[in-house]
Specification:
Structural class: alpha+beta
Radius of gyration: 14 Å
Shape: globular
Number of helices: 4
Strand order of the largest sheet: 1-2-3-4-5-6-7-8
Helix content: 10-25%
Length: 181
């Protein structure tokens, strides 16, 4: 479950790491990414997540842009029997729009598509125990995913070589939020 939490965190970070190649990160106002988001879909090559994909549910994140340009990212990730809450600081990598965190393994995050207000697609990587895993995540301001966004997310996932069996639309949940103590 900790792995699932970390993977979701990476996805969020990816969202924050606005892809310079994909979006033109110079045009993305990171303050528009700030706020609360629902992680409503993901595509991954993480076998641990894929083995448990029927148990995965929508997670929440909150992103705060700090004065020095770092990102303070909080996660609430539902796992069987508990709500895992994590906080990580993501720092710019030196590549425009890309961030990293070394909390609980080395992670990067980059936003590959966003409208800046209602959704963001983030590509994340994580290196742990010498292995690199990848995840593409869909962040939305609401718990609902429109048919248009679902199609867009699946298209972006396939462009990054994720097959349909590795793309997961996450069901909503009420057990785990950022507001609980």
């Amino acid at each position: 479950m900790r792995t699932v939490g970390l993977s979701l965190g990476l996805a969020l970070l990816r969202l924050l790491l606005v892809g310079a190649e994909d979006l033109g990160a110079a045009e993305l106002d990171m303050s528009k990414i700030a706020g609360r988001w629902h992680i409503t879909a993901m595509a991954t090559d993480n076998e641990s997540y894929l083995q448990k994909k029927d148990q995965l549910k929508m997670a929440m994140t909150s992103i705060e842009v700090l004065g020095n340009g770092d990102l303070n990212v909080s996660f609430a990730i539902p796992t069987p029997g508990q709500c895992m809450r994590l906080v990580s600081i993501y720092k710019p990598t030196g590549v425009l729009g890309q961030y990293y965190s070394s909390d609980r393994g080395y992670k990067t995050a980059q936003v590959v598509d966003t409208d800046g207000t209602t959704y963001a697609v983030v590509f994340a990587t994580r290196v742990k125990d010498g292995k690199t895993v990848h995840a593409l995540r869909l962040y939305t301001k609401t718990r609902e995913v429109s048919p248009r966004l679902a199609v867009l997310f699946r298209k972006l996932a396939r462009q990054r070589s994720f097959t349909n069996d590795r793309i997961i639309m996450l069901p909503a949940q009420d057990e785990c939020s950022l507001d609980e103590a």
